[in-house]
Design a protein that fits this description.
Layout lengths: L2 E2 L1 E4 L3 H12 L4 E4 L40 H15 L4 E2 L6 E5 L2 E6 L2 E5 L2 E3 L21 E4 L14 E4 L3 H10 L5 E5 L12 H16 L20 H5 L7 E2 L3 E3 L2 E3 L5 E3 L2 E4 L32 E2 L2 E6 L11 H24 L1
Parallel strand pairs: 1-7, 2-3, 2-8, 3-4, 8-18, 9-16, 10-11, 10-16, 11-12
Antiparallel strand pairs: 5-6, 6-7, 13-14, 14-15, 17-18
Helix pairs in contact: 1-6
Length: 355
């Protein structure tokens, strides 16, 4: 079986950026993507999400970003990614459902039902969308209404006339409330008091947020999302929900779930028809478990004080879309850094073999 110089797992923004830079460096590689079509997680977003609603899609290297219009994000971004793959002749293979990555006497082996790939290095760009986090609460299984996570969100019309409890303190929860409050009765609960910001989200502010995530990754701790440390802002399309009091009436978490609603700590009952869990995601890295990359603290420690993409425990492995690069803020930079890390490892390996 032919041994590649690198394999990229995932063809979202970070994966495509990595492939672009690997190609420019002349590194022979393939990109394995689980989806049948280009677009990464964007193709799975809800129809009501427009390009004006998203936090911004950073341009891929060597290309202009898509325009901020009222067009559907789940159509515009996948088309943008597809054009990019064609324009740069990126070696994407799909669909490939990677199950495991193992070590065979110093060679990494990527296992999938569609085949096996042997490689000297690996760039993991699987992101978080396939691992929605759903917290557990007493009585959750008894609820007779509907429970949905962000990944299942069907758009605001689905909830018209139903009492919706939105759970979560991040940007998705704010967006959901903005869309739902003008249509139906909403409640908002979070574990912590939301932190709001009313200043412009400048590049400097974005860099500061990324730095906070880098600190955790440098210590080998499980990463927080970049969005979780930026603070919350209300956009123009959410002002009507704010006028209706959707954000001011935020309550702390309930103590249990019952068949027709939730019970608060003080014993009072709140009837609801739908629980919408905007509770975030976790890194999709279970396929890397055989490589034992996690630290004792539960995360994967990266080099350069958390600013790099190389796994400290195994320099063959680059992680993009993980920690500080798990958003469009850091994805492009991470792709370039990962490609450089791959080249460095291959050069070091070549020198060691010739010594």
């Amino acid at each position: 079986m032919d041994i590649l110089e690198s394999v990229v797992i995932g063809a979202g923004q970070a994966g495509l950026s990595s492939s672009y830079h690997l190609s420019r460096l002349g590194i022979r590689h393939v990109v394995l993507d689980a989806d049948a079509r280009p677009g990464g997680a964007w193709q799975h977003r809800w129809d009501a999400l427009t390009m004006r609603d998203v936090h911004g899609v950073a341009e891929l290297p060597g290309a202009l970003p898509p325009a901020r219009t009222d067009a559907r994000a789940n159509q515009v971004v996948p088309a943008y990614f597809a054009d990019y793959e064609r324009a740069h002749d990126l070696p994407v293979i799909r669909p490939v459902d990677v199950e495991l990555v193992t070590d065979d006497d110093g060679i990494l082996v990527v296992h999938a039902p569609q085949g096996r790939w042997r490689t000297r290095t690996l760039v993991n760009a699987t992101g978080t969308w396939t691992r929605p986090f759903l917290p557990r609460y007493p009585g959750q299984e008894t609820f007779l209404g509907e429970q949905l996570h962000t990944v299942d969100y069907p758009g605001p019309e689905h909830f018209r006339g139903r009492r919706v409890l939105v759970v979560g303190g991040g940007a998705s929860a704010v967006q959901f409330l903005g869309a739902l409050a003008p249509l139906t009765d909403t409640l908002w609960v979070t574990r912590r008091e939301p932190i709001w910001r009313d200043d412009d989200f400048t590049p400097e502010a974005g860099a500061a947020a990324v730095a906070l995530v880098e600190q955790r990754v440098a210590q080998g701790l499980p990463p927080q999302s970049v969005v979780s440390v930026t603070g919350l802002m209300l956009r123009p399309q959410e002002q009507e929900a704010a006028r209706l009091g959707a954000y001011a009436a935020r309550r702390p978490m309930f103590s249990r779930i019952e068949p027709h609603g939730v019970r608060w700590d003080d014993g009072t009952f709140e009837p609801v028809d739908v629980i919408l869990w905007a509770t975030g995601f976790r890194p999709a890295i279970a396929h890397l478990a055989p490589l034992r990359l996690r630290s004792a603290s539960g995360g994967i420690q990266l080099d350069r004080g958390g600013r790099g993409t190389t796994a400290v425990k195994d320099p063959r492995i680059q992680l993009v879309g993980y920690g500080p690069s798990a958003s469009t803020i850091g994805a492009n930079r991470a792709g370039r850094t990962a490609a450089t890390g791959v080249r460095r490892y291959l050069s070091d390996e070549a020198r060691a073999l010739s010594a």
